[in-house]
Amino acid sequence: MNAALRNPRIERPGEAHLGFVDCDVHPFYRTPADFDPFLSARWREHRQSIGGRSRQGLARTSLYPRMSPGNGMRGDAWPKTGGPPGSDLTLMREQLLDLFDVKAGLLAPLVGGAAAERNVEFGAAMARAVNEWQAAVFCDPEPRLKASVQITLEHEESALAEIAARAGDARFAQVNIPPRGIEPLGRHRYRKILAACAANGFPISLHLGGTSGHASTGGGWPSFYHEEHPSYVQSMQTLVTSLVCEGVFEEIPDLKVVMVEGGFAWLPSLAWRLDTHWKRLKAEVPHLRRAPSEYIREHFWVSTQPMEEPERPDDMLRTIEWIGPDRILFSTDYPHWDQDDPRYAFKVRLPEDWARMIYRENAIALYRLD
């Protein structure tokens, strides 16, 4: 973390991109009991006596230190009143929203375990609880914060109900689906959920991570976090490939997909490879009426944190040019230790019109924030 983030004063605010939209803000609970007011008596008892059971193949092992709630956070983000980073709205305002005059912050709650729960009915109950918790604890007292609808992808009925229940509620801006699931997201079994997102005006947010029960890499379980971390990008590549090649965008032309915290320099090369194979394999995928890169440019957005940092900074501009500066969203990843300061996130000077799009305009248009 850059030490400047701790400075309560912003020098030359005109150059600090104040008023940006932050597309990755992580709220956290003070204790798991924070969800109890939003659970029925049955599921409150279940949470207290049985608890969650994740589809994690190594369930009895601890998280990598970087990924644990304590070690993955900014040292100065621990509230003096107690609780973990992300749980204190006053401190979130001080360190992020007010410091940079943030126009809007998209909440990405990595809590509750709803998406990875083996007991899908309990997962559905936790998804509802996390949604109500976001709205009551963060969005109602702070209108700049926008919630992400949590769903249990493997419980279609509850997922559709939750999407419908949040439609039209200005506190909710998108639907969150973890990239690592039981099956690739483009499969037909998920079409009703994806169609419901599009029909109700919700982009889907694919924030890196998730627990499927499968090994986290294509080659099995890694030994080190140094191996684990790059595998998040592999998950994103798989998602793009699945959604495009399975014909999701032909069937659901209004679907919008945001890939959060997965980098983006890999996207052009994936598109080139898909286009090359499509020219030779068209007979297998006659439902694809256009080159894969055209679907990618039309339906996908990416977020900035963490960005790849090429040895030649100008290569970043070329990468953005191919993806399109209108498809990139700014994010800080607050309150994680490696979050980005908007003044120093880009190691190359952006053209002013690109900066306006990336820091503000793209997210305002995508999430209809005006």
Structure description:
There is one protein chain. This protein is α/β, with parallel strands linked by helices and 370 residues long. 35% of the residues lie in helices and 9% in strands. It has helices at 41-49, 89-97, 120-139, 156-166, 191-199, 225-245, 248-251, 267-281, 292-299, 314-323, 352-366, and strands at residues 21-25, 104-107, 145-150, 172-176, 204-207, 257-260, 300-303, 328-329. Strands 1-2-3-4-5-6-7-8 form an eight-stranded parallel beta sheet. Strand 3, helix 4 (156-166) and strand 4 (172-176) form a beta-alpha-beta unit.
Topology:
Blueprint: E1 21-25, H1 41-49, H2 89-97, E2 104-107, H3 120-139, E3 145-150, H4 156-166, E4 172-176, H5 191-199, E5 204-207, H6 225-245, H7 248-251, E6 257-260, H8 267-281, H9 292-299, E7 300-303, H10 314-323, E8 328-329, H11 352-366
Radius of gyration: 20 Å
pLDDT < 50 runs, ≥5 residues: 1-14
Q: Could you state the order of secondary-structure elements as H and E? A: EHHEHEHEHEHHEHHEHEH
Reported for the largest beta sheet, the result is: 8 strands, parallel
* Percent range of helical residues: 25-40%
Annotation, overall tally of beta strands: 8
Strand line-up across the major sheet: 1-2-3-4-5-6-7-8
Strand portion? 5-15%
Structural class: alpha/beta
Average residue-wise pLDDT: 91
Number of helices: 11
Task: Compute the separation of the termini in Å.
Answer: 31 Å
The shape, in one word, is globular
